Amino acid sequence: MNSSTHCILCGDELVYTNDLSEINCHFCGEKAETELSCVNGHFICPKCESSSVEDLTMIHCLNTTSSDPVSIAMDLMNHPNFKIHGAEHHFLVPAALIAAFYNFKGQVGLKKEALELAWERSRNIPYGFCAMNGTCGAGVGTGTFISIITSASPLSGKEWQLSNMMTARSLDRIARSGGPRCCKRDVFIGFVTAIEFMDELLGVRLPVNSRISCPFHQANRECTREECMFYPEMKPVR
Ligand SMILES: [Zn+2]
Ligand SMILES: [Zn+2]
């Protein structure tokens, strides 16, 4: 797919109109004038086109109204600056979960501080932490999310327990999927596990599409293909 002629969000064609029209950027929400947008009306402003992935994650999570963490993360991971594997996935997981959770609860005013906390707590988890420390950063991101929304501290009771339980459940599932590492798969496992966890333990049922079909497998040389539950011919999550 040629990204200069196709939309990075939906893959459909970019088309020119004869007139300049005003359109909102999909990521930052700001209005801009353009002659070029995709047939489905997606537009990305020049600033968001060249943003760092961390800035883009922050701004998109602040602006999106979606309650589906998978869809929020999928838009970000489709951005050309988002690598197939990398430490940026460690912030992506709590950020997309925070955005979806507070959007669903109608508490959008709580997003900014929560996202800044998630960035502070995720930014120092290095790439390769999964293999070198036996602790996948995407799995940790789910525990970071629960810690932030429950205001857990080292002295908390229930909140401390929930945060650690969240990470443990994600890591267990990530481990069972086996190596080699895949940041996309591990992000998806984190979301599936966190969505179930919220439903079971917080009574929050996010309106999400239950089937995740990974569009990134061709870009990942080590993709385990049929062995992965998110390969387009998906097996149920174990
Ligand atoms: Zn599009
Ligand atoms: Zn923008």
Question: Characteristics of this structure?
Answer:
binds zinc ion; two-stranded antiparallel sheet; 2 strands; mainly alpha; globular; 48% helix
Low-confidence stretches: none
Number of domains: 2
Euclidean distance between termini CA atoms: 32 Å
**What's the helix-strand series?**
EEHHHHHHHHH
Using the CA coordinates, give the radius of gyration: 18 Å
Order of strands across the biggest sheet?
1-2
Mean pLDDT: 92
Query: In terms of structural class, how would the helical and strand content be classed?
Result: mainly alpha
* Helix content, binned percent: 40-55%
Number of strands: 2
Shape summary:
globular
Strand content: 5-15%
Bound molecules: zinc ion
* Sheet with most strands: 2 strands, antiparallel
Number of helices: 9
